[in-house]
Write a structure and sequence with these properties.
Number of helices: 2
Shape: elongated
Radius of gyration: 15 Å
Strand content: under 5%
Largest sheet: none
């Protein structure tokens, strides 16, 4: 759900202006790989971190 706001803004801008502005490499990497980065850091950097099983 953390992706909902930026994706909504990008889609609305695309529909209204027919162009995409300010979607750079960092934005694309964050949208695609954020979950992978967090999971990897949880396994390797913060080994004692415990998550609830939601």
């Amino acid at each position: 759900m953390s992706y909902a706001t930026p994706i909504t803004i990008i889609v609305i801008t695309l529909i209204v202006k027919h162009t995409i502005w300010a979607v750079n490499v960092g934005t694309v990497v964050a949208l695609i790989f954020q979950g992978t980065f967090i999971a990897t850091s949880d396994r390797w950097v913060f080994r004692k971190l415990k998550h609830q099983r939601l």
